Amino acid sequence: MPVVRLSSKNQIVLPKEAREAMHLKGKDELLVVVKGGITIIMPKPGNYNQSVSGLGEGIYSPGHLRKERRSW
To answer: With contact defined as beta carbons under 8 Å apart, do 30 and 42 qualify?
Structure first.
């Protein structure tokens, strides 16, 4: 596991293996998400709808939506 160091200018360099795994190149934008004590760095999606599409799949049981609609 590579270790990075924060410079005196508060900058880090992403290791080559991380850049290659995320298919990054110069001037690509990244998102930094902080949740509690965990920080996640990921490429900024070109299309947010596509990037979140299907993330909820499998959370609800089959027929859940139909049941909820009938309850209205």
So the answer is: yes
